[in-house]
Write a structure and sequence with these properties.
By secondary structure, this protein is α+β, with helices and mostly antiparallel strands. The protein has helices at 16-24, 29-32, 94-97, 135-160, and strands at 7-12, 36-40, 50-56, 62-77, 83-91, 102-111, 117-126. It is 26% helix and 38% strand. The chain is globular.
């Protein structure tokens, strides 16, 4: 069965550093994130750390997703003022261990000089039982996550008097 990888994109009127801070302060997810309502991981986050995501689906159902941080590239802003950052983690639940469903979630930030920060996320699913992973409900969760990230980062940036 063909499907599209779950993804979401949003433009955030906040500096890349402010958006990144919201993304990596996982202990605050319950305050603002309607999809990943809790993320258990050692602080500060580091490549190789396990991270357990507690998600809430749009229908109110809940799931626990064991992952491992595979990339954590804090914002780098070039001389031209353009910035990039990247966070990724790999699904490690039983379906992955059995080779039935594999997943890697990528989260990228980019910022043009003086422009908004662009947040993009995609889950690259593979394996014979991907359909059971619910790509459509994951995509819905990603959209809710992206919208809430935008609100949280813009609010904190405005309260701090930061501009991009």
């Amino acid at each position: 069965m063909a499907y599209e990888h779950p993804k979401a994109t949003v433009e955030i009127d906040a500096p890349i550093e402010a958006v990144w801070r919201v993304m990596v302060e996982t202990e605050s997810y319950a305050v603002w994130n309607p999809f990943v309502v809790r993320a258990e991981t050692a602080q500060p986050a580091a490549v190789g750390n396990p991270i357990v995501l507690h998600v809430t689906w749009a229908n109110g159902g809940r799931a626990r997703s064991p992952e491992r941080i595979s990339a954590l590239d804090a914002p780098v802003v070039g001389e031209d003022g353009a910035g990039v950052a990247y966070l990724a983690y790999v699904y490690e639940g039983w379906p992955a261990r059995l080779g039935l469903v594999r997943g890697v979630r990528h989260q990228r930030l980019t910022q043009r000089p003086g422009g908004p920060t662009r947040y993009e996320t995609v889950e690259e699913f593979s394996g014979p039982l991907v359909g059971l992973a619910g790509p459509a409900r994951v995509a819905d969760g990603f959209r809710r996550h992206a919208a809430a990230l935008k609100t949280r980062a813009e609010t904190l940036a405005n309260e701090s008097g930061l501009d991009h």
